[in-house]
Design brief:
Helix content is about 20%, strand content about 40%. It is α+β, with helices and mostly antiparallel strands.
Length: about 220
């Protein structure tokens, strides 16, 4: 995965009021931490960051340039936490984690399904139960996605985490017994039981009618 350049600004004012003013000016508050350094408050262009993440994925390596901090000119970072507006989707806050390219990192990578399962042609239902997995690798070995080919899946088939094909140099942290995707049959509608049928108005009236006939005969 290639590194992507992003220019950010150091900021002195923090807090809710300062953050509101920052967003009103078209910037988003952020923080940079990691590599045994104190956290540094930043301001970032949310549109520029969003463009990078949409093009390169959520685990894009960012080549950060922090204006006013020459010692951070060649910082490489990952987005560790991203807060968006619940309706508009705008970036509201970002946590950047500065990485050491020579040390492994832990990341959550999305799972991407490829193909159309054969079981769908026979009434099966696709259930994608696990959307991402946790991996450990060097920063430059982070995969953008993990692709899973489902084209050969029949009704009743399940693909587990342990069956996923991972790139070289990438270690799995997620439980291998977890299911990723399965093809299930639709649940059939239950037919009325005998007891339920007996509770219909016609069935309920039958015993009373029979009792009246019995009384008339006894008379």
């Amino acid at each position: 995965m290639s590194e992507t350049a992003l220019v950010v600004e150091a900021r002195e004012r923090i807090g809710k009021s300062a953050n509101r003013k920052l967003r009103a000016a078209g910037r988003a508050p952020a923080v940079l931490y990691g590599r045994a350094r104190d956290s540094l408050p930043l301001a970032v262009d949310p549109r520029a960051l969003d463009k990078i993440l949409r093009a390169s994925g959520v685990n894009a390596l960012l080549d950060l340039t922090v204006e006013g901090h020459a010692e951070l000119k060649e910082s490489v970072a990952l987005v560790r936490e991203l807060q968006r507006h619940p309706l508009r989707g705008d970036i509201l806050h970002v946590d950047f984690y500065e990485v050491d390219l020579a040390r492994v990192v832990t990341v959550d990578v999305p799972i991407h399904l490829v193909g159309k399962a054969r079981g769908l042609e026979f009434g099966g239902i696709l259930e994608h139960t696990l959307r991402e997995i946790s991996l450990e690798c060097l920063p430059r070995s982070i995969p953008e996605t993990i692709e899973v080919d489902i084209s050969a899946m029949e009704v009743g088939d399940v693909i587990h985490v342990r069956e996923l094909v991972l790139p070289e140099g990438v270690s799995l942290l997620t439980d291998g017994d977890l299911g990723v995707v399965n093809i299930a049959l639709p649940q059939a509608e239950e037919e009325p039981t005998v007891a339920a049928a007996a509770e219909t108005p016609e069935a309920a009236a039958a015993p009373g009618a029979a009792a009246e006939d019995g009384d008339k005969k006894s008379d």
